[in-house]
Amino acid sequence: PELAVCVASPSGVFRVAEEVGGPLVGFAYAAIGDLDRTPSNRQACFVYLAVAEIWRGRNVGRALYDAMLRALRERGVTYLYAWADDGVVRWLERRGFTRGKTCTWVDREI
User: Fold this and answer.
1) CA atoms of 90 and 72, how far apart (whole Å)
2) pLDDT truncated to tens, each residue of the chain (110 aa)?
3) Nearest Cα residue to 44 out of 57, 30, 27
């Protein structure tokens, strides 16, 4: 359900890669707007980048990221941020991101 909401959202950018006449290879999504920042419409959160395992290492992720970035710029976004684990952080750093505040995920059953 969450992915369907992302695809349908007018306040985000969703890009896909697929084989011609074949299955989905990967997708990228960024949500535009951040209520904690002003002006919020110039901010976007890089939420998803997923590439099928057999397609990894073939620049599919880079192409999806670049297409998403172009679309965000066309919509006036000037700042992009993401929550990411260490493996993804290194990939993002190679694309100009810098490490920000470090947070630790905590959860519990209720």
Assistant:
1) 22
2) 677 887 788 888 999 999 888 899 999 999 998 666 666 678 888 999 999 999 999 999 999 999 999 999 999 999 888 888 788 888 899 999 988 877 776 765 67
3) 30
- For 89, list phi and psi in degrees, rounded to 5: -60, -45
Burial of residue 9 (CB within 10 Å: 0-12, 13-18, 19+) is middle
pTM greater than 0.70 (yes/no): yes
Question: For 39, phi and psi rounded to 5 degrees?
Answer: -75, 135
Full DSSP string of the chain? -HHHHHHH-TTEEEEEEE-TTS-EEEEEEEEE--TTSSSGGGEEEEEEEEE-GGGTTTTHHHHHHHHHHHHHHHTT--EEE----HHHHHHHHTTT--------------
